[in-house]
Each structure stands twice: as C-alpha cells, then as structure tokens.
Design brief:
Number of domains: 1
Structural class: mainly alpha
Helix content: over 70%
CATH architecture: Up-down Bundle
CATH class: Mainly Alpha
Distance between the termini: 15 Å
Order of helices and strands: HHHHHHHHHHHHHHHHHHH
Radius of gyration: 20 Å
Length: about 400
C-alpha cells in the first residue's frame, strides 16, 4: 500500500526535482563505502562497552559513570542529525559527508586521548554531534542518487549496517583491547574516518544545485513540519523504544556480569552477525508488506525474543540465539521507519530522515540509563523492563495504523 506524501511548507527549498534529473550513482562502487561508513560511524557509540573495565581502572570511576560514556555520544549523535541533515540538502550530500568524516577523525582521536572520565564524557558529546552529520547525508544521497530499482536493497543494507555496528563495533573493540591499550580503539577509528573520507570523495557524484540562495532558516523549516506529520509520529516513538532496547540489552549484559569471560562475550556478540548479514536479502519480500506491517512484524519478533530471554537468559547458548532473533526483529523496524520518513517527508527527505534518526538515538540515549537502573536487580528484571518497552512500541504502531 503506497504511503501518501505530506506537503511541507511552501518556502521549503524544492531540491528534489533537480536531483531526479541528475545522473545516478554507481551502486556497486557506492554501497561498500556507505556500508563501511555506517559501521564506523554508528559503531563509535558501542566501542566503549568492552572497554568499561579498562576505562574504570584508568579513571577510578564506577559503572554508573561508564553508562554516560554511551549516552553522551548518543545525545550528541541525535543532535547531529537535526543540525546537519538539513545542511546536507543545502550544501550537498558529498560535501557534508566528506567534511563530517574528516571532522570525526579529529574528534575521535581527541576522545581516545582523554585522561579523565569528565573530559571523555564531554568529548563524547562533541564526537557524537560531529559523527551525526554522516548518516543523514548517506540516507538522503541513497534516496536521491541511487537508481530506484536498487534503492530498497541499498537502504536495507545501509540501515542494517547502522544496526550491525552494535555487534561489529563491540567485537572489534574487544579484540583490540585484548592486545593493546583501550586508547588504540579510538586511534584506529580516527584513522578509519580519514581513509573513508578520501574513498567517499572519490566514489560519490558531485553535488547538485541546492537552495543556498535562500536564508539559512529555510533549510530548517521542514523540521517542525515533519513533526506535524501525524501518521509518522507513532512510528518515530516506536523506533526510539526499539533502539533503547538494542543499546540497553548490550549495556546491561556488561553491567550484570551474567556472561563471564571474553570468549563467551565474543560468542554472544558474534551470534547476531549471521542474522544481520541476512537482513538485506529480506528487503524484496518485506517490500510486499506495508511499512506499518513491517514495523509490527519486527516488534513482535523482538518482543517474543526478549520475553523468552527473561525466562531462559541464564543459558549462554539459548541467550545467544534469542539475542540474534531480537536483533533480527529490530533490524526490520529501523529501515521501515526510515523509508516511511523519506516517503512522508516529500521534497525534504533529508530533514525527515534526520528527524527519524534523531528519534532512534534519543532512544539510544535512554537505553544505557534504563540498563543502569534495571541491571543491578538482575538479568531477568532487565529483560522484563526491555520487554515492556517493546510492548509499548507495538501498541504505538498499532495505534498509528489507524491515524
């Protein structure tokens, strides 16, 4: 079922018609660069999780402080979407993306050199803000410069990469800290941003004309209008709750200590990778469902896995399978919400997608805080708390279908 396109303000820069007439990007060259960029960008939120013990030892702080290392980045990351998303429409997706990658390289390096927890928290906010320029530019470029026949697969692949970063970043971080000081994780990330900036500048098409002749306020005029698109609001809140569950479960696992030893933690994290790799293959069959139906399906799968984990979460093998199922369900939700925002946003896709991703990472900010409260009460309390969030997300999605 096709989604209606909601009209945004008449003075919003009408850039889409220019881009529709522009050349299409080469999918084979663009997709790998976007996937790696998405993994590296969103992965910055999760790389500290395996480093908690090393950071606590260096800074002599408690576990509660470490959850702010995650939430601080998520807070800045969400703000970066709203700040830089409209600017990517105004100044060009390639320009904003490449500049954002270079700035992220510098701030990530500084974050890795932080000598105290308060300084690290402050730098993590700035890091998140700068890195937040990357996803909106990628998704808007996909929506306007990738051939329509390839768009669903590319969108699912990139959105899955944002999700896969949850696990991939932790695996890489855990492997590095096993042999090097924790600073090396951030230093390596800084190098990765610099290299990918050069790659993206090479593979992306040149920017097309935008509304730079209009006042800057016009670039942000679409954001409040997006928040007035009634059918989109329940999906945004459901997406935020789902992301809170994603970040909360992995943060909670580290805080509860239910899994002992680096080998078991590595197995638990890696268990979700096959599901994440399979998600892009589901893009075509899932496209036969409406976006609301996709979100309902994803929430049902994730909630079922989380409830089962509340009963059987003490068994490592069972927990590994249930987390993989949870990730699979959440992996269906995010692309559906993003595509809905792009379709409903009309000519200001970047602004609409920025608002959608902002909502995701507002949820990501809340996730570690929920884990910090629930995890000390035991894993089952954590699992039931996160299950309730998913049930609420399901209710909102069902209500949204009637709007």
């Amino acid at each position: 079922m096709a989604m209606p396109t909601h009209q945004l303000p008449a003075d919003t820069p009408a850039i889409t018609r220019h881009r529709n007439a522009s050349p299409r990007a080469h999918t084979g060259r663009t997709l790998p660069a976007f996937v790696l960029s998405a993994l590296l960008a969103t992965g910055q939120m999760y790389v500290p999780i395996p480093l908690f013990n090393a950071m606590k030892a260096d800074w002599s702080v408690g576990s509660g402080v470490m959850t702010w290392i995650i939430s601080a980045f998520a807070f800045g990351y969400a703000g970066g979407f709203v700040l830089f998303g409209p600017l990517s429409d105004r100044y060009g997706h390639r320009r904003v993306l490449v500049t954002g990658m270079l700035a992220a390289s510098v701030v990530t390096l500084l974050t890795g050199l932080a000598f105290s927890a308060p300084l690290a928290v402050g730098l993590r906010v700035i890091q998140g803000l700068v890195v937040g320029s990357i996803p909106p530019a990628i998704m808007a470029y996909v929506a306007t410069r990738i051939a329509p026949a390839h768009r669903a697969v590319v969108t699912m692949s990139v959105a899955t990469s944002f999700l896969a970063a949850t696990v991939v970043a932790q695996i890489v971080s855990q492997a590095v800290v096993g042999s090097f000081h924790w600073h090396a994780v951030f230093i390596g990330g800084a190098g990765g941003f610099a290299v990918l900036a050069l790659v993206l500048r090479s593979v992306m098409l040149g920017d097309v004309p935008t509304g730079r002749d209009l006042p800057l306020r016009h670039s942000y005029a679409a954001i409040p209008a997006v928040l007035r698109i009634t059918p989109l609001l329940p999906m945004l809140v459901a997406g935020a709750m789902s992301m809170a569950v994603m970040v909360g479960i992995y943060t909670g696992l580290e805080l509860t200590g239910i899994v002992k030893g680096s080998g078991e933690l590595l197995a638990l994290r890696a268990g979700a990778l096959p599901v994440m790799m399979a998600l892009p293959l589901l893009a075509v069959p899932l496209a036969r469902l409406s976006k609301h139906a996709q979100i309902v399906l994803g929430v049902l799968i994730a909630a079922s896995a989380m409830v089962a984990a509340a009963f059987e979460g003490t068994h490592l093998a069972v927990l590994t399978v249930l987390l993989a199922i949870l990730v699979g369900g959440l992996g269906v939700i995010a692309p559906a919400v993003l595509q809905s925002a792009g379709e409903l946003g009309g000519e200001s896709r970047a602004a609409a997608m920025s608002v959608a991703m902002f909502s995701f990472y507002v949820g990501a900010t809340v996730g570690p805080l929920v884990a910090a409260v629930a995890a000390p009460q035991g894993f089952s309390v954590l699992a039931w708390t996160l299950s309730l969030l998913l049930v609420a997300a399901l209710g909102l999605t069902l209500v949204g279908r009637r709007v």
